[in-house]
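tool=predict chain=A
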Amino acid sequence: MTTRRDFFRLAAEAATLAVLPGQAMTAETNTQSPRVARAIPRQPALLDLQQRFVDLRFGMFLHFNMATFQDREWGDPTSAPDLFHPTALDTDQWAAAAKSANMTWGCLTTRHHDGFCIWPTKTRGASVRQTSHQIDVVRAYIDSFRKAGLRVGLYYSILSLRDDIRHFNVTPDKIQLIKDQLTDLFTNYGEIDILITDGWNAPWSRITYEEVPFREIYEHIKTLQPNCLITDLNTSQFPAGGLYYSDIKAFEQNAGQKVPQGSDLPALSCVTLTDGWFWKQSDLDGHLKPTETVVNEWLVPLNRRYCTLILNAPPTREGRLAPNVISRLEEIGKAWKNPGPADKISKHVVITTPNLATAKPIHASSYPDTVGPDEANDGSFQSSWYPDEGLTSGWIEVDLKKQQSFNVVSLIEPVGRWDDYQQSRIKSYHFEGWDGAKWVPLAEGGVPAPTTIHRIPRVSAQRVRLTFESSHNSPHIADLGVYDEPE
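tool=predict ok
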Protein backbone atom coordinates (compact mmCIF):
# COMPACT_ATOMS: atom_id res chain seq x y z
CA MET A 1 0.00 0.00 0.00
CA THR A 2 1.27 3.46 -0.85
CA THR A 3 1.50 5.45 2.35
CA ARG A 4 0.91 9.16 2.64
CA ARG A 5 4.66 9.68 2.99
CA ASP A 6 5.41 7.60 -0.11
CA PHE A 7 2.77 9.46 -2.08
CA PHE A 8 4.16 12.88 -1.29
CA ARG A 9 7.75 11.81 -1.81
CA LEU A 10 6.85 10.66 -5.33
CA ALA A 11 4.55 13.58 -6.00
CA ALA A 12 7.20 16.08 -4.98
CA GLU A 13 9.31 14.94 -7.90
CA ALA A 14 6.54 15.84 -10.30
CA ALA A 15 5.14 19.04 -8.85
CA THR A 16 6.01 21.32 -5.97
CA LEU A 17 3.95 24.13 -4.58
CA ALA A 18 6.53 26.84 -4.45
CA VAL A 19 4.42 29.88 -3.79
CA LEU A 20 6.15 31.73 -0.99
CA PRO A 21 4.30 33.07 2.04
CA GLY A 22 2.92 36.54 2.18
CA GLN A 23 1.01 38.34 4.84
CA ALA A 24 -2.69 38.50 4.19
CA MET A 25 -3.58 42.07 3.52
CA THR A 26 -6.69 42.30 5.64
CA ALA A 27 -8.25 41.35 8.90
CA GLU A 28 -10.51 38.36 8.49
CA THR A 29 -11.88 36.07 5.80
CA ASN A 30 -14.45 33.53 4.89
CA THR A 31 -15.99 32.00 1.75
CA GLN A 32 -19.31 30.94 0.30
CA SER A 33 -20.84 27.62 1.22
CA PRO A 34 -22.86 25.48 -1.15
CA ARG A 35 -25.51 25.53 1.60
CA VAL A 36 -26.97 28.36 3.64
CA ALA A 37 -24.30 29.52 6.07
CA ARG A 38 -24.90 30.65 9.64
CA ALA A 39 -23.01 33.24 11.64
CA ILE A 40 -20.51 31.58 13.98
CA PRO A 41 -20.18 33.13 17.44
CA ARG A 42 -16.56 33.41 18.57
CA GLN A 43 -15.66 34.32 22.14
CA PRO A 44 -12.80 34.95 22.55
CA ALA A 45 -11.93 36.27 19.10
CA LEU A 46 -10.36 33.94 16.56
CA LEU A 47 -7.09 35.89 16.73
CA ASP A 48 -6.90 35.29 20.49
CA LEU A 49 -7.54 31.57 20.02
CA GLN A 50 -4.85 31.39 17.35
CA GLN A 51 -2.42 33.21 19.65
CA ARG A 52 -3.21 30.81 22.49
CA PHE A 53 -2.47 27.90 20.18
CA VAL A 54 0.83 29.33 18.94
CA ASP A 55 1.81 29.95 22.56
CA LEU A 56 1.50 26.20 23.23
CA ARG A 57 4.70 25.68 21.18
CA PHE A 58 5.03 21.88 21.55
CA GLY A 59 2.54 19.01 21.62
CA MET A 60 2.22 15.23 21.44
CA PHE A 61 0.50 13.50 18.53
CA LEU A 62 -0.84 10.08 19.54
CA HIS A 63 -1.51 7.78 16.61
CA PHE A 64 -3.33 4.90 18.28
CA ASN A 65 -6.04 2.98 16.48
CA MET A 66 -6.72 -0.24 14.58
CA ALA A 67 -3.48 0.08 12.57
CA THR A 68 -1.51 -0.22 15.82
CA PHE A 69 -2.51 -3.87 16.02
CA GLN A 70 -1.65 -4.66 12.41
CA ASP A 71 1.79 -3.13 11.82
CA ARG A 72 0.18 -0.89 9.20
CA GLU A 73 -0.16 2.82 8.53
CA TRP A 74 -3.80 2.40 7.48
CA GLY A 75 -5.84 -0.15 9.39
CA ASP A 76 -7.55 -2.99 7.54
CA PRO A 77 -11.21 -1.92 7.27
CA THR A 78 -12.35 -5.55 7.18
CA SER A 79 -10.81 -6.51 10.53
CA ALA A 80 -13.05 -7.41 13.47
CA PRO A 81 -13.47 -4.67 16.12
CA ASP A 82 -12.12 -7.00 18.83
CA LEU A 83 -8.69 -6.86 17.20
CA PHE A 84 -8.38 -3.44 18.86
CA HIS A 85 -7.58 -4.60 22.38
CA PRO A 86 -5.05 -2.64 24.43
CA THR A 87 -4.22 -4.90 27.36
CA ALA A 88 -2.62 -2.28 29.61
CA LEU A 89 -3.94 1.10 28.51
CA ASP A 90 -2.14 3.80 30.50
CA THR A 91 -3.08 7.30 29.36
CA ASP A 92 -1.64 8.74 32.59
CA GLN A 93 1.71 7.51 31.31
CA TRP A 94 1.14 9.31 27.99
CA ALA A 95 0.44 12.56 29.83
CA ALA A 96 3.44 12.16 32.14
CA ALA A 97 5.68 11.55 29.11
CA ALA A 98 4.33 14.67 27.41
CA LYS A 99 5.03 16.68 30.56
CA SER A 100 8.57 15.28 30.72
CA ALA A 101 9.23 16.71 27.24
CA ASN A 102 7.77 20.08 28.31
CA MET A 103 4.85 19.60 25.92
CA THR A 104 1.67 21.53 26.62
CA TRP A 105 -1.02 19.62 24.71
CA GLY A 106 -1.90 16.44 22.90
CA CYS A 107 -3.94 15.15 19.96
CA LEU A 108 -5.40 11.64 19.62
CA THR A 109 -6.54 9.80 16.46
CA THR A 110 -10.19 9.18 17.34
CA ARG A 111 -10.92 7.74 13.88
CA HIS A 112 -8.32 7.01 11.21
CA HIS A 113 -8.78 6.22 7.52
CA ASP A 114 -10.12 2.69 8.04
CA GLY A 115 -13.02 4.22 10.02
CA PHE A 116 -12.72 2.51 13.43
CA CYS A 117 -13.77 4.78 16.34
CA ILE A 118 -11.87 4.45 19.62
CA TRP A 119 -14.75 5.85 21.62
CA PRO A 120 -18.12 4.06 22.08
CA THR A 121 -20.06 5.97 19.46
CA LYS A 122 -23.76 5.23 19.30
CA THR A 123 -23.74 5.78 15.55
CA ARG A 124 -23.62 2.83 13.17
CA GLY A 125 -19.84 3.21 12.80
CA ALA A 126 -17.54 0.44 14.01
CA SER A 127 -16.13 1.28 17.43
CA VAL A 128 -14.89 0.02 20.78
CA ARG A 129 -18.57 -0.32 21.71
CA GLN A 130 -18.58 -3.51 19.63
CA THR A 131 -15.58 -4.99 21.44
CA SER A 132 -15.53 -7.18 24.54
CA HIS A 133 -13.61 -4.59 26.57
CA GLN A 134 -15.48 -1.42 25.46
CA ILE A 135 -12.65 0.88 26.60
CA ASP A 136 -13.36 4.54 25.86
CA VAL A 137 -9.84 5.59 24.87
CA VAL A 138 -10.92 9.16 24.12
CA ARG A 139 -12.30 9.57 27.65
CA ALA A 140 -9.19 8.09 29.25
CA TYR A 141 -6.87 10.30 27.18
CA ILE A 142 -8.79 13.51 27.83
CA ASP A 143 -9.10 12.87 31.56
CA SER A 144 -5.39 12.08 31.88
CA PHE A 145 -4.21 15.08 29.91
CA ARG A 146 -6.51 17.51 31.68
CA LYS A 147 -5.47 16.11 35.06
CA ALA A 148 -1.85 16.80 34.07
CA GLY A 149 -2.67 20.39 33.10
CA LEU A 150 -2.35 19.71 29.36
CA ARG A 151 -4.72 20.98 26.70
CA VAL A 152 -6.44 18.50 24.38
CA GLY A 153 -7.00 18.15 20.66
CA LEU A 154 -8.67 15.46 18.57
CA TYR A 155 -7.87 14.01 15.14
CA TYR A 156 -10.69 12.72 12.91
CA SER A 157 -10.45 11.30 9.38
CA ILE A 158 -13.20 12.26 6.93
CA LEU A 159 -12.16 9.29 4.79
CA SER A 160 -13.65 6.08 6.22
CA LEU A 161 -13.13 2.86 4.29
CA ARG A 162 -15.38 0.89 6.67
CA ASP A 163 -18.27 3.27 6.00
CA ASP A 164 -17.51 3.59 2.27
CA ILE A 165 -16.96 7.33 2.65
CA ARG A 166 -14.83 7.63 -0.46
CA HIS A 167 -14.56 9.81 -3.54
CA PHE A 168 -17.68 9.50 -5.73
CA ASN A 169 -19.37 7.51 -2.93
CA VAL A 170 -20.36 10.30 -0.55
CA THR A 171 -24.10 10.54 0.20
CA PRO A 172 -26.15 12.79 2.51
CA ASP A 173 -26.47 9.86 4.90
CA LYS A 174 -22.69 9.51 5.11
CA ILE A 175 -22.28 13.25 5.69
CA GLN A 176 -24.77 12.92 8.52
CA LEU A 177 -22.73 10.05 9.98
CA ILE A 178 -19.68 12.33 10.06
CA LYS A 179 -21.68 15.07 11.76
CA ASP A 180 -23.19 12.65 14.28
CA GLN A 181 -19.79 11.26 15.23
CA LEU A 182 -18.37 14.75 15.59
CA THR A 183 -21.36 15.63 17.75
CA ASP A 184 -20.37 12.71 20.01
CA LEU A 185 -16.87 14.07 20.35
CA PHE A 186 -17.83 17.69 20.87
CA THR A 187 -20.66 17.21 23.36
CA ASN A 188 -19.42 14.41 25.62
CA TYR A 189 -15.82 15.32 26.44
CA GLY A 190 -15.77 18.97 27.46
CA GLU A 191 -13.78 21.74 25.80
CA ILE A 192 -11.64 20.65 22.86
CA ASP A 193 -8.93 23.09 21.79
CA ILE A 194 -8.36 21.94 18.23
CA LEU A 195 -9.75 19.46 15.71
CA ILE A 196 -7.30 18.11 13.12
CA THR A 197 -9.14 16.65 10.13
CA ASP A 198 -7.54 14.39 7.54
CA GLY A 199 -8.43 12.28 4.51
CA TRP A 200 -10.21 15.28 3.02
CA ASN A 201 -9.30 17.05 -0.22
CA ALA A 202 -6.11 14.99 -0.31
CA PRO A 203 -4.62 13.74 -3.60
CA TRP A 204 -4.66 10.22 -2.14
CA SER A 205 -8.27 10.31 -0.84
CA ARG A 206 -9.77 12.65 -3.49
CA ILE A 207 -12.80 13.49 -1.31
CA THR A 208 -13.31 17.14 -2.14
CA TYR A 209 -14.45 20.01 0.07
CA GLU A 210 -17.62 19.99 -2.02
CA GLU A 211 -18.43 16.26 -1.67
CA VAL A 212 -18.18 16.54 2.09
CA PRO A 213 -18.99 20.25 2.35
CA PHE A 214 -16.27 21.98 4.32
CA ARG A 215 -18.30 24.97 5.42
CA GLU A 216 -21.13 22.76 6.69
CA ILE A 217 -18.77 20.68 8.83
CA TYR A 218 -16.90 23.81 9.95
CA GLU A 219 -20.16 25.42 11.08
CA HIS A 220 -21.27 22.22 12.79
CA ILE A 221 -18.14 22.16 14.97
CA LYS A 222 -18.22 25.89 15.67
CA THR A 223 -21.86 25.70 16.69
CA LEU A 224 -21.06 22.95 19.18
CA GLN A 225 -17.83 24.55 20.38
CA PRO A 226 -17.17 28.07 19.05
CA ASN A 227 -13.70 28.18 20.62
CA CYS A 228 -12.40 25.03 18.94
CA LEU A 229 -9.85 25.70 16.23
CA ILE A 230 -10.09 23.63 13.05
CA THR A 231 -7.24 22.62 10.80
CA ASP A 232 -7.14 20.25 7.85
CA LEU A 233 -3.91 18.36 7.11
CA ASN A 234 -4.42 18.46 3.34
CA THR A 235 -4.36 22.16 2.43
CA SER A 236 -0.74 22.15 1.26
CA GLN A 237 -1.91 22.43 -2.35
CA PHE A 238 -3.15 25.92 -1.48
CA PRO A 239 -0.68 28.82 -1.28
CA ALA A 240 1.48 28.72 1.83
CA GLY A 241 0.70 32.35 2.60
CA GLY A 242 -3.04 31.91 3.18
CA LEU A 243 -5.31 30.27 5.75
CA TYR A 244 -7.33 28.13 3.35
CA TYR A 245 -9.88 25.81 4.98
CA SER A 246 -8.11 26.01 8.33
CA ASP A 247 -7.93 28.31 11.33
CA ILE A 248 -4.36 27.05 11.79
CA LYS A 249 -2.13 26.26 8.81
CA ALA A 250 -0.92 22.63 8.90
CA PHE A 251 2.40 21.37 7.54
CA GLU A 252 3.17 17.65 7.54
CA GLN A 253 6.93 17.27 7.66
CA ASN A 254 6.85 13.55 6.90
CA ALA A 255 5.23 14.45 3.59
CA GLY A 256 7.93 17.01 2.80
CA GLN A 257 5.85 20.06 3.72
CA LYS A 258 8.07 22.80 5.14
CA VAL A 259 7.07 25.97 6.92
CA PRO A 260 8.47 28.72 4.68
CA GLN A 261 11.02 31.17 6.01
CA GLY A 262 9.30 34.35 7.05
CA SER A 263 5.87 32.73 7.47
CA ASP A 264 3.65 34.64 9.87
CA LEU A 265 0.57 32.42 9.72
CA PRO A 266 -0.47 30.65 12.92
CA ALA A 267 0.60 27.09 12.12
CA LEU A 268 1.37 23.58 13.27
CA SER A 269 3.97 21.20 11.89
CA CYS A 270 3.63 17.48 12.59
CA VAL A 271 6.37 14.87 12.42
CA THR A 272 7.02 11.42 13.89
CA LEU A 273 9.45 10.39 16.61
CA THR A 274 9.49 6.87 15.14
CA ASP A 275 9.80 6.19 11.40
CA GLY A 276 6.04 5.85 10.89
CA TRP A 277 2.83 7.20 12.34
CA PHE A 278 1.51 4.06 14.04
CA TRP A 279 3.55 1.81 16.30
CA LYS A 280 5.25 -1.13 14.60
CA GLN A 281 6.63 -4.05 16.56
CA SER A 282 10.07 -3.26 15.15
CA ASP A 283 9.95 0.21 16.76
CA LEU A 284 10.86 -1.23 20.15
CA ASP A 285 14.51 -1.31 19.07
CA GLY A 286 14.06 0.89 16.03
CA HIS A 287 15.27 4.29 14.97
CA LEU A 288 14.04 7.35 16.86
CA LYS A 289 14.62 10.95 15.78
CA PRO A 290 17.60 12.44 17.63
CA THR A 291 16.97 14.98 20.38
CA GLU A 292 19.22 17.46 18.57
CA THR A 293 17.05 17.20 15.45
CA VAL A 294 13.77 17.58 17.31
CA VAL A 295 14.90 20.57 19.36
CA ASN A 296 17.36 22.53 17.25
CA GLU A 297 16.25 21.70 13.71
CA TRP A 298 12.50 21.63 14.25
CA LEU A 299 11.12 22.97 17.50
CA VAL A 300 13.16 26.14 18.04
CA PRO A 301 13.18 27.44 14.44
CA LEU A 302 9.52 26.52 13.89
CA ASN A 303 8.45 28.37 17.01
CA ARG A 304 10.13 31.47 15.58
CA ARG A 305 7.76 31.18 12.59
CA TYR A 306 4.59 31.19 14.72
CA CYS A 307 4.42 27.42 14.38
CA THR A 308 3.70 24.81 17.06
CA LEU A 309 5.48 21.48 16.66
CA ILE A 310 3.39 18.35 17.25
CA LEU A 311 5.60 15.27 17.64
CA ASN A 312 4.01 11.86 17.13
CA ALA A 313 4.78 9.36 19.91
CA PRO A 314 2.73 6.24 19.07
CA PRO A 315 1.55 3.93 21.87
CA THR A 316 2.18 0.20 21.62
CA ARG A 317 -0.43 -2.54 21.35
CA GLU A 318 -0.57 -2.58 25.14
CA GLY A 319 -1.69 1.04 25.12
CA ARG A 320 1.54 2.33 26.68
CA LEU A 321 4.52 4.25 25.35
CA ALA A 322 7.59 2.04 24.90
CA PRO A 323 10.66 2.57 27.13
CA ASN A 324 12.78 3.99 24.28
CA VAL A 325 10.07 6.55 23.45
CA ILE A 326 9.74 7.52 27.12
CA SER A 327 13.50 7.95 27.38
CA ARG A 328 13.75 10.08 24.24
CA LEU A 329 10.95 12.38 25.39
CA GLU A 330 12.73 12.89 28.71
CA GLU A 331 15.92 13.79 26.82
CA ILE A 332 14.01 16.34 24.77
CA GLY A 333 12.61 17.89 27.95
CA LYS A 334 16.09 18.29 29.38
CA ALA A 335 17.33 19.92 26.16
CA TRP A 336 14.41 22.34 25.70
CA LYS A 337 12.51 24.55 28.09
CA ASN A 338 9.35 26.38 27.11
CA PRO A 339 10.29 30.07 26.86
CA GLY A 340 6.70 31.21 27.36
CA PRO A 341 4.28 33.04 25.04
CA ALA A 342 5.27 33.52 21.42
CA ASP A 343 5.45 36.85 19.61
CA LYS A 344 2.10 38.35 18.73
CA ILE A 345 0.61 37.05 15.51
CA SER A 346 -1.03 39.18 12.82
CA LYS A 347 -4.66 38.94 11.85
CA HIS A 348 -5.29 36.83 8.75
CA VAL A 349 -8.29 36.06 6.60
CA VAL A 350 -9.59 32.49 6.90
CA ILE A 351 -11.09 31.03 3.72
CA THR A 352 -13.81 28.46 4.41
CA THR A 353 -15.98 28.54 1.26
CA PRO A 354 -15.51 27.77 -2.45
CA ASN A 355 -14.03 30.27 -4.88
CA LEU A 356 -16.95 31.77 -6.82
CA ALA A 357 -14.64 32.54 -9.73
CA THR A 358 -13.51 28.97 -10.35
CA ALA A 359 -14.51 27.59 -13.77
CA LYS A 360 -16.51 30.70 -14.70
CA PRO A 361 -16.15 32.50 -18.07
CA ILE A 362 -13.02 34.64 -17.96
CA HIS A 363 -11.37 37.14 -20.30
CA ALA A 364 -8.13 39.09 -20.32
CA SER A 365 -6.32 41.98 -21.94
CA SER A 366 -4.25 39.60 -24.10
CA TYR A 367 -3.92 35.95 -25.04
CA PRO A 368 -0.35 34.68 -25.57
CA ASP A 369 0.06 31.51 -27.60
CA THR A 370 -1.11 28.44 -25.63
CA VAL A 371 -1.91 30.59 -22.58
CA GLY A 372 -5.42 31.60 -21.57
CA PRO A 373 -6.96 33.46 -18.62
CA ASP A 374 -8.72 30.22 -17.69
CA GLU A 375 -5.41 29.24 -16.11
CA ALA A 376 -6.09 31.84 -13.44
CA ASN A 377 -9.44 30.35 -12.38
CA ASP A 378 -9.06 26.64 -13.10
CA GLY A 379 -8.81 25.70 -9.44
CA SER A 380 -5.09 24.95 -9.72
CA PHE A 381 -2.42 27.17 -8.22
CA GLN A 382 0.21 25.51 -10.42
CA SER A 383 -1.02 27.12 -13.64
CA SER A 384 -1.06 30.85 -14.40
CA TRP A 385 -2.00 33.44 -16.99
CA TYR A 386 0.28 36.28 -18.11
CA PRO A 387 -0.05 39.07 -20.69
CA ASP A 388 1.75 39.18 -24.03
CA GLU A 389 5.50 39.70 -23.93
CA GLY A 390 6.52 43.32 -23.63
CA LEU A 391 3.30 44.53 -22.02
CA THR A 392 3.67 46.21 -18.64
CA SER A 393 -0.02 46.47 -17.82
CA GLY A 394 -3.06 44.26 -18.20
CA TRP A 395 -6.35 43.10 -16.82
CA ILE A 396 -8.21 39.88 -16.19
CA GLU A 397 -11.98 39.71 -15.74
CA VAL A 398 -14.21 36.89 -14.52
CA ASP A 399 -17.94 36.66 -15.26
CA LEU A 400 -19.78 35.17 -12.26
CA LYS A 401 -22.76 34.55 -14.63
CA LYS A 402 -25.22 36.27 -12.28
CA GLN A 403 -25.25 38.93 -9.59
CA GLN A 404 -23.32 37.44 -6.68
CA SER A 405 -22.68 38.76 -3.19
CA PHE A 406 -19.12 38.49 -1.90
CA ASN A 407 -16.79 40.08 0.63
CA VAL A 408 -13.33 38.69 -0.15
CA VAL A 409 -11.14 39.05 -3.23
CA SER A 410 -7.68 37.56 -3.65
CA LEU A 411 -4.71 37.65 -5.97
CA ILE A 412 -2.12 34.86 -6.06
CA GLU A 413 1.17 35.50 -7.86
CA PRO A 414 3.56 32.54 -8.32
CA VAL A 415 6.53 34.16 -6.60
CA GLY A 416 9.28 31.60 -6.02
CA ARG A 417 8.01 29.04 -8.48
CA TRP A 418 10.88 29.67 -10.89
CA ASP A 419 14.44 30.86 -10.33
CA ASP A 420 13.79 34.09 -12.24
CA TYR A 421 10.55 34.84 -10.37
CA GLN A 422 11.73 35.41 -6.80
CA GLN A 423 9.79 38.61 -6.17
CA SER A 424 6.58 40.22 -7.32
CA ARG A 425 6.51 41.60 -10.86
CA ILE A 426 3.50 43.79 -10.05
CA LYS A 427 3.94 47.36 -8.82
CA SER A 428 0.25 48.23 -8.35
CA TYR A 429 -3.17 46.66 -8.81
CA HIS A 430 -6.84 47.27 -8.19
CA PHE A 431 -10.04 45.20 -8.11
CA GLU A 432 -13.37 46.43 -9.46
CA GLY A 433 -16.88 44.98 -9.59
CA TRP A 434 -19.52 45.60 -12.28
CA ASP A 435 -22.81 46.46 -10.55
CA GLY A 436 -24.83 46.41 -13.77
CA ALA A 437 -24.20 50.04 -14.65
CA LYS A 438 -20.64 50.92 -13.74
CA TRP A 439 -17.35 49.59 -12.37
CA VAL A 440 -17.15 50.00 -8.60
CA PRO A 441 -13.74 50.05 -6.83
CA LEU A 442 -13.30 47.12 -4.43
CA ALA A 443 -9.67 47.02 -3.27
CA GLU A 444 -6.24 48.19 -4.37
CA GLY A 445 -2.60 48.10 -3.40
CA GLY A 446 0.99 48.57 -4.40
CA VAL A 447 3.39 45.63 -4.66
CA PRO A 448 1.30 42.64 -3.53
CA ALA A 449 2.33 39.81 -1.28
CA PRO A 450 2.53 36.47 -3.10
CA THR A 451 -0.78 35.61 -1.41
CA THR A 452 -2.89 38.76 -1.19
CA ILE A 453 -6.34 38.49 0.37
CA HIS A 454 -8.65 41.47 0.88
CA ARG A 455 -11.66 41.42 3.17
CA ILE A 456 -14.05 44.06 1.82
CA PRO A 457 -17.55 45.28 2.68
CA ARG A 458 -20.01 42.83 1.10
CA VAL A 459 -20.95 43.87 -2.43
CA SER A 460 -23.03 42.44 -5.26
CA ALA A 461 -21.63 42.18 -8.79
CA GLN A 462 -21.74 39.93 -11.83
CA ARG A 463 -18.22 40.64 -13.04
CA VAL A 464 -14.95 41.15 -11.17
CA ARG A 465 -11.92 42.70 -12.83
CA LEU A 466 -8.30 42.81 -11.69
CA THR A 467 -6.16 45.49 -13.37
CA PHE A 468 -2.43 45.77 -12.75
CA GLU A 469 0.72 47.65 -13.69
CA SER A 470 3.95 45.68 -13.75
CA SER A 471 7.52 46.54 -12.95
CA HIS A 472 8.80 43.57 -14.94
CA ASN A 473 7.91 41.81 -18.14
CA SER A 474 5.25 39.10 -17.92
CA PRO A 475 3.74 39.16 -14.43
CA HIS A 476 1.79 35.95 -13.78
CA ILE A 477 -1.60 35.55 -12.13
CA ALA A 478 -1.93 32.05 -10.65
CA ASP A 479 -5.36 32.54 -9.12
CA LEU A 480 -8.11 35.13 -8.96
CA GLY A 481 -10.32 34.59 -5.92
CA VAL A 482 -13.85 35.77 -5.14
CA TYR A 483 -15.42 34.48 -1.90
CA ASP A 484 -18.58 35.11 0.08
CA GLU A 485 -17.62 34.46 3.69
CA PRO A 486 -20.36 34.39 6.32
CA GLU A 487 -20.07 37.20 8.84
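The longest helix spans residues 172-187. Confidence is low (pLDDT under 50) at residues 1-37.
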